[in-house]
Amino acid sequence: EAGVTQFPSHSVIEKGQTVTLRCDPISGHDNLYWYRRVMGKEIKFLLHFVKESKQDESGMPNNRFLAERTGGTYSTLKVQPAELEDSGVYFCASSVRVNYGYTFGSGTRLTVV
Amino acid sequence: DAKTTQPPSMDCAEGRAANLPCNHSTISGNEYVYWYRQIHSQGPQYIIHGLKNNETNEMASLIITEDRKSSTLILPHATLRDTAVYYCIAPGRAGTALIFGKGTTLSVSS
After folding, report:
1. How many CB atoms lie under 10 A from the CB of residue A54?
2. In chain A, which residues have their Cβ closer than 8 Å to the Cβ of B49?
3. Dihedrals phi, psi of B30, to nearest 5 degrees
4. Is B95 in the A-facing interface, judged by CB distances under 8 Å?
5. Which residues of A touch B (CB under 8 A)?
């Protein structure tokens, strides 16, 4: 079984630019989550999809962040325009059910300079 | 979410059992307790979860007290590769995503 795939693995962009992160969940997993870890901080929840619907987006920091999951398969997280404080590692996870083990991807390390 | 409290760090000798405690005194009757770990900068890894009964899998055992106010994750024979940050999570409402806290940094040494 293929795991959760994220790409790119690393991205370095300048402040003000746009970056799009992609997550391919495990096939058949209706639940997809985005988290991020800023240097020295805790892993923070961003949002939760159930199929193509946003179940909970309470963790999205501001309107510069836009997540989509068209068709209920892969998901994208776009940051536009990027700011220095957006730097960190963005993790995606998927699960069959919410109250079940999540499988995380390896993350995308975003550096905004 | 139910608040969980974990010690910030613990040490364990290689080959010995690592017992990681977690307090979740405000947990409600239908909330599961989940354990994850993050090794270095990798993605968090699911370990185990439980509701009332003790659970065991190939990675670890989970002991939950009868009043469900605390639990202990047991790694029976810790190895150097078990050095990681371990997170105890008790999510709130049914259907809500997991929220990570500060966790316990476990250091396994030879």
Report:
1. 13
2. 100-101
3. -110, 15
4. yes
5. 4, 33, 35, 42-45, 48, 55-56, 89, 91, 93, 98-107, 109
Instruction: Give the CA dihedral B66, B67, B68, B73, nearest 10 degrees.
Output: -50
For testing contact with chain A, the best of B33, B89, B99 (most A CBs within 10 A): B99
pLDDT of amino acid A67: 97
What single-letter amino acid sits at B87? Y
Q: How many CB atoms lie within 10 A of CB A45?
A: 20
Yes or no, beta carbons of A103 and B46 under 8 Å apart = yes
Chain A interface includes B8 (CB < 8 A): no
Reduced to 3 states, what is the DSSP secondary structure of residue B81? helix
pLDDT tens digits, one per residue of A16-68? 999 999 999 999 999 999 999 998 888 999 999 999 999 999 999 999 999 99
Q: Could you tell me the CA-to-CA distances from A78 to A27, A75, A95 in Å, in that order?
A: 22, 10, 22
Distance CA A36, CA B49 (A): 22
CA distance A51 to B60: 31
B5/A contact by beta carbon, under 8 A: no
